[in-house]
Amino acid sequence: MRETCDVTIAGGGIVGCAIAQRLTAEGRRVVIVEKGQRLGNGASSAAMGGIITETDELCLGPLRELVKRSRELYPAWVAAVIGLSGIEVPLLTAGALQIALDDAEMIRLHERIVPRWQATGARAEPLLRHEVLRAEPLISRQVRGGFHLPAELALEPRRLMAALSAALWLDPGVRIRLGTRATRVDASPHGVAVHLDDGTRIESGHVIVAGGHLSGSLAPDHAGQLFPIKGEAIEVIAPGAGGYPMRHHVYASVEGRDIYAVPRNDGRLAVGVTHERGRSDTVPTPGNLAMIRHGLAALAPSAASWRMRRHWSGVRPGSVDGIPFIGPADRYGRLILATGHAGLGITLAPVTAELVGGLLDPGGTDAATRDLLALCDPARVRSAIGPSPTER
Ligand SMILES: Cc1cc2nc3c(=O)[nH]c(=O)nc-3n(C[C@H](O)[C@H](O)[C@H](O)COP(=O)(O)OP(=O)(O)OC[C@H]3O[C@@H](n4cnc5c(N)ncnc54)[C@H](O)[C@@H]3O)c2cc1C
């Protein structure tokens, strides 16, 4: 069987779906190939949902401009997804709190993190102990103080994926092939052929490889630069719940491990997360559950006794230098990688879609977009890709 379209997208997570939505809005015919039985089958449904711009140290380094751009795009992007799908996606806009539960962490924040916030122009408002407790009464009374980071947002990734998926199913410019795996990509100067495990061959101008932590199988020259990072989280629910159990999403460090809580608008509280580099199984473990519960008890003691609704794991797509791979991965510019977002893929989905749109329409890009594309260019990590025809 043979099919044609303008762009084939291998992988229907948040990255592939955000790109599909962007490209179809520009009038391109898109096919999404997803090996799972629904869109958002992988890491995208396992995420906590922080739209993170300050609380992850990576955001204060080379990713600064990338996360800032994505944050700018976020509210309008979510509104567009809601408009297209008719599915509400509550967006928590009160910001994040980064708090210190002991004196050592307070000193670390002041010595290591505050100067970086200042250097990058991040808005971080200091809070005294009683101000933290007033803002979030559930927080442990051990708290020493903290910071309010008003730019950060949060949402429920499964809800966002449901809306994005509904919008794409309604879109006449998009064909979605579920339960089908892309097995090989053959690029040429004239186009690209994507081979599927059911024998279909899709011919298009470009293929976007957005297969999360499995992307390397379709871009073998970069496979060694991409790796899985397993993460686990849980969800508890407040008794008699209704509404957000906290007003902010909250970061803390407990015995040197991050603990992160993100409230949902129906009384649930997602709490995580773990990081296991190199692991790609999705089996949640009792050891990690105990660790997360221990962190929750230190962060918000009363919430530790709430009923647990879920315990899950997902696999983030890691990259060797912590920067996503967004750009051409073959010598003809036909195979475009869009992966390696690690723990920031929900945050970076809108800017990734914008950058891929810019790659396919280079005449329409501005200098800032070109700078971000240069940052994320897979060729920055020299590999066996070989010279492009013009370099020969
Ligand atoms: C516990 C946890 C917490 C997280 N919290 C946050 C957070 O708070 N904020 C944030 O920004 N990010 C967070 N992340 C990271 C975020 O989830 C990921 O960066 C993001 O989901 C990656 O999206 P993706 O579309 O690239 O990958 P995925 O969602 O994994 O999607 C890739 C898809 O490609 C499909 N696929 C793979 N290979 C093929 C193939 N050959 N053919 C067809 N289909 C294929 C897979 O089935 C999958 O559905 C978290 C992740 C985890 C695990």
In terms of structural class, how would the helical and strand content be classed?
A: alpha/beta
| Number of alpha- plus pi-helical segments | 8
Q: Compute the number of structural domains.
A: 2
List all distinct small molecules, including ions and cofactors, that are bound in this structure: flavin-adenine dinucleotide
CATH homologous superfamily label of the largest domain: FAD/NAD(P)-binding domain
Instruction: Tell me the major beta sheet.
Output: 9 strands, mixed
How would you characterize this protein structure?
Strand 2 (7-10), helix 1 and strand 3 form a beta-alpha-beta unit. The chain is 29% helix and 28% strand. The longest helix is centred in the first third of the chain and has 22 residues, at 64-85. It contains eight helices and 21 strands. The protein has 392 residues and is α/β, with parallel strands linked by helices. The chain is globular, with a radius of gyration of 21 Å. The chain folds into two domains: 2-46 and 159-225 and 321-391, FAD/NAD(P)-binding domain (3-Layer(bba) Sandwich); 93-152 and 227-318, D-Amino Acid Oxidase, subunit A, domain 2 (D-Amino Acid Oxidase, Chain A, domain 2, 2-Layer Sandwich). The model is unreliable at 384-392 (pLDDT under 50). It has helices at residues 14-25, 64-85, 103-120, 129-135, 157-170, 286-299, 345-360, 367-376; strands spanning 2-4, 7-10, 30-34, 50-51, 96-100, 125-128, 145-149, 153-154, 174-178, 182-188, 191-196, 201-204, 206-209, 226-237, 249-254, 257-263, 268-272, 276-277, 307-319, 325-328, 335-339. The strands form four sheets. Strands 5, 6, 7, 14, 15, 16, 17, 18 and 19 form a nine-stranded mixed beta sheet that branches. Strands 9-3-2-13-21-20 form a six-stranded mixed beta sheet, with helices on one face. The site of flavin-adenine dinucleotide has 44 residues, from helix 1, strand 3, strand 14, strand 19 and helix 7.
